[in-house]
Amino acid sequence: MSINRRKVRFSALVIGFLALAISGPWGGGAPAPRPGPRAGVSGDPRRGARLFAALDCARCHSEPRRDRRVQVPPALDIEGNRANLDWLAEYLLAPHSIRYAAEGIRGDLRMPALVASKSDARDLVALMATWTDTARVPHVAVAATDSAAHEGEVLFAQYQCRGCHELGGEGRKIGPALDDVGARRPPDYLRALLLDPQRVVPGTSMKNFDLWDEEAVALTAYLGSLRSPAASEAYSIPTGVVADGPALGDSLPASPTTLPIAR
Questions:
Q1: Going along the chain, which residue ranges are E strands?
Q2: Concatenated DSSP letters of 159-192
Q3: What is the pLDDT of residues 201-213, one digit of tens each?
Q4: Which domains does the chain have, with CATH numbers?
Q5: What pLDDT was estimated at residue 104?
Q6: DSSP letter, residue 248
Q7: Cα–Cα dist 156/261, whole Å
Q8: 54-83 pLDDT, tens per residue?
Q9: Cα–Cα distance between 14 and 162 in angstroms, integer?
Q10: Helix 213-224 × helix 146-158 angle, to 10°
Q11: Which of 200, 245, 210, 223 is nearest to 82 (CA)?
């Protein structure tokens, strides 16, 4: 029965794509793939390694972590895959709660604001950009066409994703809100997570929907389009409130000869 259901759904997707292709032009060829998660890294990973040690980041982000719930605090072993790095640099300057400890309840653990310099934030991000695992998150370009995003929006409703995630003020507050997920997460990470949640985040409560790759690509295109100004502005750094302070990295000892590996 499940096979027939999947065939029907896949056929509907094919018909939808054909209808869009017939009704309008594709704009002169296939769209260019979005930049990968490591695009735009401008910091020094060796300075980042010194900062990581000086700020004692491993105290919370290495095993065993202070909280045994999944991703609280988050492991950083694939942070180079998991985060859009421009977003991560801003987050380090103004940390805020993203996950829920229970439905509708934020956890009592939150990352302190330890980074005051934009250059320090970039250096830390450059370090974390080296922590990747292509076996768990393959580097696959995901073409974010309007048609794929539309199909993804249909699938988002069909799979009842608001049963765990809030979007546009609607949905349960169990998993992270998705209003700005496209700004936070790279497309290849989203695709890998949708296809096999446990492989990417062991122990996660996210359900495996046994998606076709075409479905995962469509959902990724839709989620990647979610960059709500309202959600982003709520977490942005207020002008004049968080200044670009002195770079702690300038006062630290010489760089290590090898970069640390996230554990």
A1: 100-102, 105-106
A2: TTGGGT--BTTBS-SSSPP-TTHHHHS-HHHHHH
A3: 998 989 999 999 9
A4: 45-134+236-251 (no CATH), 138-233 (1.10.760.10)
A5: 87
A6: G
A7: 36
A8: 999 988 887 665 565 666 788 899 999 999
A9: 25
A10: 100
A11: 200
